[in-house]
């Protein structure tokens, strides 16, 4: 069964599913109650990363409880929806991108399931699942969405946005997207053996990358139309067996 971790621009559809009462697990409570719903003719579970309504800041999210909850509910693969800033011209505002790499700039987050009793090191060379990525990209192309098929997601600590110098450094590092929630989420999914891919919606140019002045209303408009595209893409991907 597919699990979706939904981000800031929560799809209205996800508010309709049936709430699942989950007890707090070994890692505490998830950000919000997951919901069970049908999409593209398939059952899936959606977990709101920031709670519902949105109230948990990126550095305060209980990423371990979120991943643990999904695994406990029988989820076998995860698609993470994230909103991001665009660092390079190919990540223009409004574009959907399926990133292929991550750089982690976060600190102080509970980032691993590895405890003292059993030390192990997960292979994370390719942080995203190739099959899930290919399915998301194929679904986008099937419904006529101009999707970015690669991207390096730089995960910052937040909740503040970055300085221009920080974004310049991230660009030199090779980042093309910047967000605040991809890590430790992706790493934890890997530790749990859950194939994980990300579908990112670019909602603003990263700091110092804007041509036009900052416009919050424009961001909300982009979010609304981008989430509609994301929904069409996911419906198609699920109908095609995601
Ligand atoms: N920086 C970090 N996270 C973000 C941004 C950004 O510019 N936009 C959306 N999430």
Q: What can you see in these coordinates?
A:
The chain is built from five helices and ten strands. It is an alpha/beta fold. It has one domain (2-239): Nucleoside phosphorylase domain (Rossmann fold, 3-Layer(aba) Sandwich). Strands 1, 2, 3, 4, 5, 6, 7, 8, 9 and 10 form a ten-stranded mixed sheet that branches. Strand 7, helix 2 (130-142) and strand 8 form a beta-alpha-beta unit. The longest helix is centred in the last third of the chain and has 24 residues, at 216-239. The chain is globular and about 45 Å long. The mean pLDDT is 93. The structure holds hypoxanthine. The site of hypoxanthine has 12 residues, from strand 5, strand 9 and strand 10. Hypoxanthine (HPA) is lined by residues 83-85, 156, 161-162, 178-180, 203-204, 206.
List keywords for this structure.
alpha/beta, Rossmann fold, 10-stranded mixed β-sheet, binds hypoxanthine, globular, 5 helices
Indicate how many domains the architecture comprises. Answer: 1
Order of helical and strand elements: EEEEHEEEHEHEHEH
Mean pLDDT: 93
| Quaternary | single chain
- Main CATH class: Alpha Beta
Q: Report the span from N to C terminus.
A: 9 Å
Taking pLDDT < 50 over at least 5 consecutive residues as the criterion, the unreliable ranges are none
As a whole number of angstroms, the C-alpha radius of gyration is 17 Å
Which structural class is indicated by helix and strand composition? alpha/beta
Q: Using the coordinates shown, work out and report the CATH topology.
A: Rossmann fold
Based on Cα principal axes, name the global outline. globular
Ligands, deduplicated: hypoxanthine
Could you state the CATH homologous superfamily? Nucleoside phosphorylase domain
Number of strands: 10
What's the CATH architecture? 3-Layer(aba) Sandwich
Query: Helical percent range?
Result: 25-40%
Largest sheet: 10 strands, mixed
Strand content: 15-25%
Helix count, DSSP H or I runs of 4 or more residues = 5
